[in-house]
Amino acid sequence: MRLLVILLTILLLVNILGFILTNLETRVEVTVWKTQHRDVSLLAVVMLSVLAGIVYAGVIAVAEGANVRMENRRLRREIQKLETELVYLRTERPRAPNGALDSAPETPRKTPDEASPAASETPASAPVYDTSGYGWDDDSGDGAYTGGRGV
After folding, report:
1. Dist. CA 131–CA 91, nearest whole Å
2. Are 26 and 42 in contact (CB under 8 A)?
3. In a 10 Å sphere around its CB, with 0-12 CB exposed, 13-18 middle and 19+ buried, how is residue 147 labelled?
4. Could you report the per-residue pLDDT of 13-34, keeping only the tens digit for each?
5. Domain spans of the chain?
6. Most exposed residue of 26, 34, 79, 88, measured as fewest CB within 10 angstroms of its CB?
7. What sign results for the dihedral spanned by CA atoms 73, 78, 84, 86?
């Protein structure tokens, strides 16, 4: 695509240059709004037209580039929000199908005196829940950082 744009640009410039060289001595009358300019070189008219087109295309390109950058920024924020939600959902307590978790007996909380010696160890960086009794006891490679279930 870039090669096509370069080729078309070169072709356009060659045509403009050929037009200018064949009409080098040509003088024209130019009217801008209500002002008339007599005996103006065709070279000046063509060069000003080309310059105006370049400036116009540049302004459009800058505006379009700003629009693309704003859209990319919005999409990056949305991706970050979705990734945060995904991390939360991965570390949330697993839910058993058909409400099996709701009918499971609740384990009583232990006081710090009754806590096991393992409770004083440094906790894992992601919560790991006891999945025994919920049908997830298969050793399918669930690691300590998957929330007790495969991701």
Report:
1. 13
2. yes
3. buried
4. 898 888 878 888 888 888 888 8
5. 27-91
6. 34
7. negative
